[in-house]
Amino acid sequence: MAARAFVRVAPARAKAAFYGFFAIGLFLSWRLFDVQIRQGPRLARVALSQRSETVAQFAKRGAILDRDGNVLVRSLPSQSVYAVPSNITDARATAAAVAPLLGLRAGSLEATLRARSQFAWLARKIPYETAQRIRALALVGIYTEPEETGVRFAPSGHLASTVLGFVGLDENGLAGAEYAFDSYLRGQAGRMRIEADQFGRAIPFGETTVVERAAPGRDLGLTLDSYLQFETERALAAQVAATHARSGSAIIMDPASGEILALANVPDYEPGRFAAYSDDARRDRAIEDAYEPGSTFKLITAAAALESGAATPRTRFAARDALLVGGRTIHNAEDGFMAGRGGPETMDDIIAYSHNVGAAEIGMAVGRRALYRTIRAFGFGEQTRIELPGESPGILPRPADWSGSSLATIAFGQGISTTPLAMVRAYAAIANGGLLLRPRIVRTLYNADGTPAYTYGREIERRVISRRTAAILRGYLRSVVVRGTGNPTARVPGYTAGGKTGTAQMVENGYYAAGSYVASFIGYVPADKPRFVILVKIEKPRGMYYGSTVAAPVFASLARTAMLHAGEMPSLAPSPAPRPGSRRPASNDPR
Question: Can you say whether residue 191 is alpha, beta or left, with left for phi > 0 and alpha for psi between -120 and 50 degrees?
Fold first, then answer.
């Protein structure tokens, strides 16, 4: 009886279970249809939006070239290294293997790897070769991935670093030409949509859609000559080291075009590792640092005298060793030197032997207004508008603000400040016959395909002196080298040259610092038709500090190098002897 009852109950339960499972299956089938077919496209879009991210597609940054098309700096493919610390079982061994390749301390890297986090950057934008070496270790928890932006690489190391500048992590220009022409070099970034994980990293084989294609940056051609730049940096660094100086700057300019062929600063740095250097090492001193030019400024005073008619080449000034002006006594650097010659001195003599008293007398003969007008005409007190950031305009007080002695002291380069670039531009105007040119550091802008888009030409700002005045001034500068303070240190064997020495006491914290000097020399070569104007400035040399002994020899070396590089062979004719009856001061280079 019980068996028959069980048989009757079993089919009923089976039917109930069957209908139950059927209903569940029917519901699941409906849900599957609803999710996959009915709502499938919408849900797919929602899911994609949750794991997709729109990121910038960086454009490849353009290269910076020299005047001959040689690469000074360019971008190379880069990679980054990251870790998943939670997957690393031996943090100490892993850190010991990876740290030397990344230039990190093993101890600090080990602490990062022990954090048990899911993600940690170890290094960004490293060279591809370094990433390969890390991948070859096959370490669990250590991974590499390509970067959208490259690593900036300067093939010649430090060459022209203070001109080139440097870029940030995302290849945005931060200094120098990299900053001034950032938008041109960087190009136009694009946008793309990628599938990414929770850390924002692209999912392998995920969908990638280009929303806006990136336009690559274009190349920039500078006026620099790599060979002259190298030789200038080498000669300057050697002299800074030999004199135990604090710093130095040197510029070579083409006086006919205004193009900068070399611009060097010591110290300098490596653009690819700029963060490892101080702000002081990265500064472009030649355009950012204003200084009192000292005796090199006497040519501007002479120009004012000739242009205003206050004096002629035949005008004679009393040969005195001291002059009281506005309650201040001005001295020559070597007392009694000119008095020993027995007679008054011309402007040629004053400049050749760099006499402060004579220059002061010339300035007072010219007067405040005429001297100020000439100084402004030469561009002092304003930026030269070179295509580099951070240029200082220098300091030029208005005549109304001059003290009783300012007219006399400014006449020999004290009480005024300017930059090496402004000084070399002024001397270029003397060398080219009186035309003030805008200095150029950029020569060519290139198209994306590498063809020239625009080449800059000479830009004449104004005529500052007549051809006749320029010729007279060049004669004065020639006398400096032949019989004055530049003889024999500024002489260029096999070539004729002219120039001017300068030794100025440095101003620190508003006062003249005892024992701190700027030694400088500005000149040109050859004397008849100048092809190169060269400035050498060295700050705080120890021991010897005159421009004639510190800066002039560097000028002579660079002048000879530039002429040989230009294909101009030296002459075998002997250099002209000093004028009869003249006497060259020993180690004398007055301020």
Answer: beta
